[in-house]
Structure prediction request, 400 residues.
Amino acid sequence: MKLHFHKWIERDNVTAEMNQAASREAVDTAERSLSEQDRLGGSFAFPPSYLQFLTCFDGGFVTYQKSESDHSLGVSFLGTGEHCEAWNSLPHYNAADSVLMNHKIDVYHSIEPLVVFALDEDSNFWAFDPGVYNTDGEMSVVYIDHETGDVCDQAENFTSFFLSIVNGTLEYGDTMETEADGASLINPAVNHPLKSHAPLEHAQFTTTSNKTHLYRLGVHKIGYFGDKTVIRNVEALRNSETGIPDIAQLHIVFNKWSGDPIVGINLTTLVTADLATRMEHLSLTGFRFENVIVSTDAAFRRQAKKNPEVMDLPGYLWMIVVGTAEYGADGKIISHSGHDISIGVNLEPISTQNLISLVQSGRSDEILPTSSLVVTEKYLEVLRDAGMKNAEVHSMGTIN
Prediction:
């Protein structure tokens, strides 16, 4: 079916500044660059409606404004890079070494399985979800909040998305419901007795030598905070006074699941009831358990349709960490409270300018988080025995 993008941008109240058409060679090159990425399963092809768009315009800017007194709606479409600056192209935004794919930036984890193709005026994103194909090869379009990483369903396909812009009916951001709205709650860790572990001054640490080997642990991120989460220190987080939320009630929305027994968001960590039992049996230290509200969103449910075993989430408990640690710019441990599980703080965090420089020079692996889970070798073995496969583990050296 021929789509009439040229005519659609000539509608009343629509202003457009579009690039000329992309060549087939440029489109093929963009598809190849995406197909080479493991995150997309080693194969990717643009949906048919988007291909037609590229044969009309290699990106550009579309604005809808009903009247001068109304707020304008502007969408910037990324191009293949043939008729725009490389840094403002679809291949650049979706490259494996781009800022959006940097696993050190937690809010961008939700973008990893998606293909970004457009931005709004506040640098939020629209993306294709390759995990949701229609019978005609079309992909669903999702909206991503760049500050929170929340993902919302936007349109069934690119054509519907484009028409909602030129018709002035596009709703996004604060006007949308998140994918988690209406999701059913899952009973967390049924019948698991909650147990508070020894406070810092009374905790005991057992080791077979005078030295303890420590590791920085980056658990697999599985979603985002739900609307039932209550955070006490919101202002401090907004003002960058701390990166650690003080949570009174926790609601986690799963948008994916790797099967790991320990998962989380930033430093908010969940463990399965089975792992919690093992931890208590082995008298590990530095934590306590609380209940958590768990729900799933539309992205999770789409995965579950393709892989039913994904839907079988175990019961989870919220693991609140009370152990403490400090490390330096080289990632080596400086001080440690002696617990099996601790929150480590980077005493020499990287500046924003140096962060951007490292990302742009392809040295993202040198970026250390401002805070991280720190665990002993004993706890690391427990996690591996329990089936942990997707967490990032980095040695921090030993401490007496």
Summary: Residues 185-399 form one domain. Residues 175-191, 193-209 have pLDDT under 50 and may be disordered. The chain has two domains: 5-175, 185-399. The chain has ten helices and 24 strands.
